[in-house]
Design brief:
This protein is of the alpha+beta class. The chain has helices spanning about 30-40, 45, 120-125, 135-150; strands spanning about 10-15, 15-25, 50-55, 60-65, 75-85, 85-90, 95-105, 110-120. It contains four helices and eight strands. The mean pLDDT is about 95.
Length: about 150
């Protein structure tokens, strides 16, 4: 599936998984976007989808994230991939969120966010998980605004 870089999220639901994607073009280089994306302490300031984020976004670490989608729950997420200025992934046993940064010829960055959640017991709780589309679109818009303001 090709992801359009227009900031519109798409979701594909299957019996044992759900994948949500969004992409947007940011008028900043990947290093600037990466700095915003990996400075955990600043998330609540620039990202309106995050209530809090504790810990450090670095290889092998664990962060504690509280989302506006479910402010009563704290997600403990392991940093699974950390490739400076290009790829970051975090998640738990049920899902992984991957951030990809690709520099364009014009010095912009294509930001892509893709999250797959699922597993053998996914059908038992799938109906209780809210749609991520609006949250993904807001995350991408917030990241774009923060990176463009700091570039």
């Amino acid at each position: 599936m090709t992801t359009s870089a227009d900031g519109t999220a798409t979701t594909v639901s299957k019996t044992f998984s759900r994948t949500t994607k969004v992409a947007t073009t940011i008028d900043a280089d990947p290093a600037t976007v990466w700095r915003v994306l990996t400075t955990a302490a600043d998330y609540p300031r620039w990202n309106s989808t995050i209530v809090s984020l504790k810990g450090e976004i670095k290889p092998g670490s664990t962060i504690q994230l509280v989302s506006t989608l479910d402010p009563s729950r704290t997600f403990k997420l392991k940093i699974k991939e950390f490739e400076p200025t290009s790829r970051l992934a975090w998640g738990d046993p049920l899902g992984t969120r991957v951030y990809t940064l690709t520099e364009t010829n014009g010095g912009q960055t294509i930001f892509e966010m893709n999250e797959r959640i699922g597993g053998p017991i996914f059908p038992l709780f799938a109906g209780k998980i809210p749609s991520f589309d609006a949250s993904f679109e807001q995350f991408a818009a917030d990241l774009k605004a923060a990176a463009e303001a700091s570039s």
